[in-house]
Amino acid sequence: MRNIKEIVSQLTLEEKAGLCSGQDFWHTKAIERLGIPSLMLSDGPHGLRKQDQSADHLGINDSIKAVCFPAACATAGAFDRNLLQQMGETLGNECQAEDVSVILGPGVNIKRSPLCGRNFEYFSEDPYLTGELATAFVKGVQSQGIGTSPKHFAANNQEYRRMSISSQVGQQALREIYLSAFETIVKEAQPKTIMSSYNRLNGVYTSQNEWLLTDILRKEWGFEGYVVSDWGAVDDRVKSLEAGLELEMPSSNGINDTKLVEAVRAGLLEESVLDLAVERLLTVTFDYIDHRRAVTWDKEADHAVARQIAEESAVLLKNSGILPLSASQKIAFIGEFAKKPRFQGGGSSHINSFKVTNALDEANKETKIIYAQGYDVTEQTDDVKLRTEAVEVAQNVDVAVLFIGLPDSYESEGYDRTHMSLPQNQTDLVEAVTAVQPHTIVVLYNGSVVELPWADKVAAILEMYLAGQAVGEATVNLLFGHVNPSGRLAETFPLKLEHNPSYLNFPGNGRDVDYQEGIFVGYRYYDTKNLPVAYPFGHGLSYTTFTYSDLKVSKDTLTESDNLEVSVTVTNSGTCRGKEVVQLYVSNQNANHKRPIRELKAFDKIDLAPGESQKVTLNLTPRSFAYFSEELNDWYIASGIYNIQVCRSSREVICETEVRINSSQALPFKVHRNTTIGELLEQPNCQSITKDLMKRIAASFGDHNEESESSAVSDEMATQMMSSMPLRALLSFGILTDDSLEETLIALNTVVE
Description:
Blueprint: H1 4-9, H2 13-19, E1 41-43, E2 65-66, H3 72-75, H4 81-97, E3 102-104, H5 127-142, E4 147-148, E5 166-168, H6 171-178, H7 180-189, E6 193-196, E7 200-201, E8 204-205, H8 210-220, E9 226-229, H9 237-243, H10 255-265, H11 271-290, H12 299-313, E10 315-319, E11 331-334, E12 352-353, H13 359-363, E13 369-372, H14 384-394, E14 399-405, H15 424-436, E15 440-445, E16 460-463, H16 471-479, E17 493-494, E18 512-514, H17 523-528, E19 533-535, E20 546-553, E21 557-558, E22 564-572, E23 578-588, E24 599-608, E25 613-620, E26 627-629, E27 634-636, E28 640-649, E29 652-661, H18 677-681, H19 687-701, H20 715-723, H21 738-752
Parallel strand pairs: 1-3, 2-12, 3-4, 5-7, 5-18, 6-9, 11-13, 11-14, 14-15, 15-16, 21-29
Antiparallel strand pairs: 7-8, 10-16, 17-19, 20-22, 22-25, 23-24, 23-28, 26-27, 28-29
Organism: Streptococcus caledonicus
Protein name: Glycoside hydrolase family 3 C-terminal domain-containing protein
GO molecular function, one term: hydrolase activity
């Protein structure tokens, strides 16, 4: 049995410091005399971007030929844990084949704004969905003996000045929205590493934020692996090591290693801190060595997996009955993306695909397709000739399928978008084609939400997102009904950018970015405000129909520590096999402050033949009913009624029931001079004292039921005035003296304790 502590004891101070940074861009350092190997980390998570030479982290230089799977913007739409675990297993197997010890991903930052340039690498605007899918992916990868590195920890929700901006986030929003997915991954999957982000969090760089990396990540959540910096993110190496960041990447060319050595020798850094960091690093290193095995990489088989994932993830946004297509129809494919699809994003996750399929070639295997380029994706200028040719083609076919989306230049790591629009030449093409062809279908290739001003003019919209290298086959299989669409939107499509809750506070002033919308991110904002949207979170159509019945809960009264089982029967009431995403939301309107109208708390995806029914059971835990109380600095469950809602999307409740929670938890309440009468009325133990005070206040108003000037003070006015009146105001009315006010405060605080 290998003794890690014994190995650490044999290392020199310089060797220990050296192990805490990279050897080069992708490799850790080796200590050959002690059998410590150099291991490779590589970008992911939707493909293996292994660079052996000319390394960089922005995807500028080529990597090995690999398989490009759909990006997270697409896979989130699958709402399928099993599919994400399968994808993870496949990627883990590829890492074994290429001797890569850790794949850097998944990206689990929340889509706070649709403008974030890296949104295509992130799953969702919803932390629960993000956490569940990312956990499944991590489990899949690590089942193959490969480490993962969920990123970017934390509150990295933009590219603008990402290496220095401070994300100013309140504790409730941090816990409920921005840390929640990481917490789920750590507690349920124990990733081998966590990647800290570039940005500062409430003024402190995350790479040297002890509260984040030690107090929360390790002490509270129980993380056992090591923390690695985002590439070039470390500001102060000594502070970052003390805070809990073990591995700095890439190499600092010895500069920061020397700083660690000097700090230890000067008594500014305890050597035990360095020892612990090395122990954590070596534990993960040798875990990989112990699980190393010979693997044959079958790229064609993995391509088939990539195709399946793309098919399961696509979202049918609209269908007036025109889909699926038939090979007997006269069909035109219009748009350069039909021939040269955009299937992945730019930057550090850019995969050098060993092959890529396109929809035009694949559809021509089914029937003869007429093609028109329609626009130039590179130039993005108004090309009247291309558009005119497309219109002529469109008006002479039964169905026109338009392939449009965002060019590479519109979204990438390193910069944010400035708008949600498609290129003008593509928008003009849609308008021109729909003017002559009512049977127009739009296929979208994009990494994040776009405005769809022409949505009511087209017959169908298929959202493929960035669907990986098998995009051509997947698109055609969906269009022709060989596969029934089953994806659901993991993000809201707003009607316009200005409707986004972060609009006035994104991307900040260059130094700070204020998250003033708090917990009201994505559908939590749009739905609570009842703001019209293009397509809501959770939306997605099918070629079949599903009906729901027999909603039941395991109990209708709970305590704050109880779990709840919710069951509902789903029937495929249509004519073809299909998959349905059962979405369960909880509506909590019991808190003293505003809560979202509903929040996703469970989901499952089922496969049903026509006429087949299945009972689906979903589990809710106490956390499903809790919110983070800044007063308690902990999770809190309020007593009251909670609506349990089975939904087709965040906007469409299919069936619902309610449960009551009798919670023994209580928020701290301290009575002071400015506590109001209304606040006291909400405290049961204060009732007798408060009612006595109210009688004395009412008496001071006089009899306002008489026909006199005092009738200007109505009963309602008097009640409202009393409710908002602070205790100190009773001095002005002569109801209390200084001494009696102090006595009252003591009496009230005694009964509320």
